[in-house]
Amino acid sequence: MTYQPQKDFGTPESRSDAAVSLTIDGREVTVPAGTSVMRAAAEQGTSIPKLCATDSVKSYGSCRLCLVEIDGRRGTPASCTTQVEPGMVVRTQTPQLAKLRKGVMELYISDHPLDCLTCAANGDCELQDQAGAVGLRDVRYDVQATHLGQEKDHSNPYFDFDPSKCIACSRCIRACDEVQGTLALTMEGRGWDSKISAGFASDNFMGSECVSCGACVQACPTATLVEKKVVEVGTPERSVVTTCAYCGVGCTFRAEMRGEQLVRMVPYKDGKANRGHSCVKGRFAWGYAQHQERILKPMIRKSINDPWRAVEWDEAFAYTASELKRISAKYGRNALGGITSSRCTNEETFLVQKLVRAGFGNNNVDTCARVCHSPTGYGLKTTFGTSAGTQDFDSVEDSDVILIIGANPTDGHPVFASRMKRRLRGQDGRPGAKLIVIDPRRTDIVRSPHIEAQHHLPLRPGTNVAVLTAMAHVIVTEGLADEAFIRERCDWDEYSHWAEFVSQARNSPENLQPVTLVDAEDLRAAARLYATGGNGAIYYGLGVTEHSQGSSTVMAIANLAMATGNIGRSGVGVNPLRGQNNVQGACDMGSFPHELAGYRHISDHDARSLFEKDWGVTLDPEPGLRIPNMLDAAVDGVFKALYCQGEDILQSDPNTAHVSAGLAAMECVIVHDLFLNETANYAHIFLPGSTFLEKNGTFTNAERRIQPVRKVMTPMNGLEDWEVTQRLAQAMGLDWNYSHPSEIMDEIARLTPTFAGVSFARLDALGSLQWPVTADAPDGSPIMHIDGFVRGKGKFVVTDYVPTDEKTGPRFPLLLTTGRILSQYNVGAQTRRTENVAWHPEDLLEIHPVDAEDRGVKSGDWVKLASRAGETTLRANVTDRVAPGVVYTTFHHAVTQANVVTTDYSDWATNCPEYKVTAVQISASNGPTEWQEEYEAFSARARRVESGIAAE
Amino acid sequence: MNSEERLIYMANQIATNLATDAAPVAAVADHIQAFWDPRMKRMIFAHGTDGLSPVAAAAIRLLADAQNGG
Ligand code: SF4
Ligand code: SF4
Ligand code: SF4
Ligand code: FES
After folding, report:
1. How many other C-beta atoms can be found within 10 angstroms of the C-beta atom of residue A632?
2. Which end of chain B is more exposed for a tag (fewer CB within 10 A), N or C?
3. Which domains occur in chain A, in start order?
4. d(Cα A313, Cα A687) in Å, to the nearest integer?
């Protein structure tokens, strides 16, 4: 297909149900009330010339190019700011209008550099198009020099700002305000002198509040704001719709291509998760896909002390299969296992767990979701009956109260955060939703432009359950529970038992205040607001799950939602914000050792025989090992071989020393990834992976939305990841013959009731589907538990607060908690290989001024961070974002190795590690620890390839 | 912690968190049955009930008996 930008309707869609009919240029058209005349015309296929209007932002009516004539109205109103009315008769093309428009265009062009032929946007410029559309042939004015020849701003690594080309349409400002919600841009001066500025006159983009989401670049009709890549490569010539591979929001993009070269990723307006918006990662940070450090050939070695030897695929598969068979024969089949990736597609994940269950002959398969959202799986399955968020993202538009606990959406889930912020700001006279934030840190959303949380409860890390129980105490004892809902939808006896428990005096906010450090009055007010403020929606993240009571916290959240009737309709619900792009999918696909696809326990005879019949094997009815159990078993000498796809457990899992001991004890570690990651330092076989641009498949985002990932270029290593797994299975003697991932999806659909109606053909037709997709819900289920819970009656579970065993004391008096920031992603293997390092060159330790002063630490100083598990060094950032007694860091950079410090305490139900609480001490330091230096030397040694050194 | 100590720790942690269940012993036994791999179960059966809280110990005995009986 040849290149076409997505159609621009000029003004946003109206959500009204009332229809209005009018006549435009002699043809009748019917549109929702509240639609602009411009949009109505566009829907009918008539494009009215325009410059300052675009459908991502509200109209402004400044350019006067979109004038029309309307019967019975004087003058020539702007069609972008005029709403349709029943029976209106509109003319968009008359000699009078043509003359007016030409005049307007002439003025614009007279103040615009006429270097179209060499301009980066040539062929993709609305000013150029409109000059053509109004038939402008010559300019009668002298070219004015008012704002030509101004200095360009190249400071942003991904886009340029050339003020000389600006036509002061303010689309960028409105995009930043309305779509992104950062409010970074302003207009300085007036009329022809006006100029866009990122904050103060002295600021450039990099120095401003700009978070590089790209919304302004997308909105700009000229080449004033333009992607550097377009300047470098030229405008695209075709496009393919695909899904972002970074986070669980799952934004849809158009990958705009020139040949096999990716020119830019443009957010897709019809993407149901993102509705045309994006963040810096998905929009710009895809340079890693072609990074020179990608390994493109398989490599093997006998011992991790040897250098790597590059081999052909055939040799790699034969060798890998022979090693796995050797180990299985020598140590028994249970000595083998695999780890699936929440970065890979559903189809790839499904194949890895199938290889383990059907090929290795055991259930030793786990996923890195173990270390993030396994408590969501346990908690929501127990209470509601299925392991998934209850809402779609659109639901937030109907919320009246938003409760965020242990999540930092502006950094972790930026595009959803923008939608949430829009609802918090309020719009068109509708007041904004109220906000409650429960987090040890003052995250950005607590206070941002036009948003101020009603309540921020800065709890002591590790006391989530106590805070939520105290909220339940208030709701029950003050009579705010929705008993009608509970009687109808939940088990009343279980509720009574729970209500009696939370009502005990020991669970009152006042009594728990010394534990949680949350002001009891504030907590009471927050609980009342959530219970009585209308539609209440809870969003939570890893600050909930990564605790020794992670599963209990998820259940406590579910209890609150049920007790207040906030389940089963738009605007309410319980929503886990998933970290990686396909965490939901990895869990759905049967990646957990105790569960088959669709959350059916491996001991469930009927479910198991379904798979056994389809696969022609007998499955082990006993659960297999979880990642931490695999590592323990390895240290014990009974677990010997691991196939690890797309994960870097050495960097992402807690207690690095324990992980490396486990890996070092294995005889065959197979790493299947893009780069020689940290885990690969302990690997014997490296199978090169492919990026999301190089394969077909599906990802499932945090709203259970299954979305297509489409191949836009040939895999640089020759094989898509699912093909690698299939070839390995074949080498082990399994009779697998998939010719396309769609066939794998057909198998998933055949074996998984909630996926029954999913196929690539339906996904192509509808764009995406939210599971369950069944005979009852053939087009999917945006909202779950509408008429009843999946498990039947909703289950209240008593969650008693149990303090973590990770305790502060005289040697380790501070609590460390960890998180992420916007520009970097997880262990950073991708983002560190892009220009995003401009925003986050290193991990910093946030420390409160009082604690810093006690230790003589200033911002920028090197500090040693020590826990009972180990120590590392990094630089300090003194800030009151964290409470006294709490320190905070990210884990994006391998050299920091924050997980050297984290312990192996974990969630009681799922062994999800307790990343969010570690007792630590901070002291001044003058550089890297011995461990860091040794590790760097080891890792340089472990990365040698026979022909030279593969740099990280 | 070695593997055996870790299993004891885990069993006790599960028992503490399920203490408020209506039938805590059965709940702990079910949980371990559903989530521990066979070797972990064998290890804790072999270890016996030393260091286990009363609820955890009862649950392990229940499981071990079921295993032997069935
Ligand atoms: S890139 Fe995004 S945040 Fe930055 S100025 Fe543009 S719209 Fe605002
Ligand atoms: S930078 Fe682009 S979008 Fe912003 S005012 Fe100038 S021309 Fe319009
Ligand atoms: S919000 Fe997430 S899915 Fe969307 S562009 Fe950013 S990283 Fe990609
Ligand atoms: S497009 Fe309507 S006034 Fe500019």
Report:
1. 26
2. C
3. 19-93 (3.10.20.740), 159-290 (3.30.70.20), 311-372+583-745 (3.40.50.740), 389-573 (3.40.228.10), 814-944 (2.40.40.20)
4. 9
Residue A319 contacts B where some CB pair is shorter than 8 Å: no
pTM for this predicted structure: 0.91
Question: Comparing C-alpha atoms, which of A533, A532, A469 is closest to residue A502?
Answer: A469
Q: How confident is the model at residue A291 (pLDDT cuts 50, 70, 90)?
A: confident
A212 contacts A284 by C-beta, under 8 angstroms: yes
CA dist A132 to A109, A127, A169, A547, A645, Å?
A: 12, 9, 19, 61, 53
Nearest to A546 by CA among A267, A804, A870: A804
Model confidence pLDDT, tens digit, residues A395-440: 999 999 999 999 989 888 999 999 999 999 988 788 999 999 999 9
Dihedral over alpha carbons A599, A601, A606, A607 (to 10 degrees): 40
Residues A755-801 pLDDT 10s: 999 999 999 999 999 999 999 899 999 998 988 888 888 999 999 88
Reported ipTM: the value is: 0.90
Both structure tokens of A148? 């030509």
CA dihedral A231, A234, A239, A240 (to 10 degrees): -60
Nearest C-alpha in B relative to A796 = B21
User: Residue A652 to residues A395, A684, A744, A829: CA-CA distances in angstroms?
Assistant: 32, 20, 29, 11
Amino acid identity, position A737: N
The answer to whether the CB of A586 is under 6 A from ligand 1 is: no
Q: In 10 A of CB A679, how many CB atoms?
A: 24
What distance in Å separates the CA atoms of residue A420 and residue A394, rounded to the nearest whole number?
9
A199: alpha, beta or left? (left if phi > 0; alpha if psi -120 to 50): left
Of A363, A629, A909, the CB nearest to B40: A629
Alpha helices for A261-312 (secondary structure H): 280-284
Does A909 contact B40 at a Cβ distance shorter than 8 Å?
no
Max CA pair span of chain A: 91
- Select from A127, A132, A124, A148 the least CA-distant residue to A231: A124
Q: Which residue matches tokens 């945006």?
A: A782
Task: State in Å: Cα A172 to ligand 2 middle.
Answer: 5
For ligand 2, which residues put their CB under 6 angstroms from it?
A 166-172, 196, 219-222, 224-225
Q: What distance in Å separates the CA atoms of residue A845 and residue A860, rounded to the nearest whole number?
A: 10
Considering only the C-alpha atoms of chain B, give the largest distance between any 2 of them, rounded to a whole number of Å.
Answer: 32
* A800: chain B residues, CB-CB within 8 Å: 17, 19-20
DSSP string, A241-270: EEE-SSBTT--EEEEEEETTEEEEEEE-TT
Distance CA A876, CA A755 (A): 48
Give residue ranges with CB within 6 A of ligand 4.
A 50-53, 61-66, 78, 80
Tracing tokens 């398969």 back to the chain, one arrives at A365
Q: Cα dihedral sign for A700, A705, A706, A709?
A: negative
Contacts of A638 in chain B (CB under 8 A): 39
**Helix (H) / strand (E) containing A513:** helix A509-516
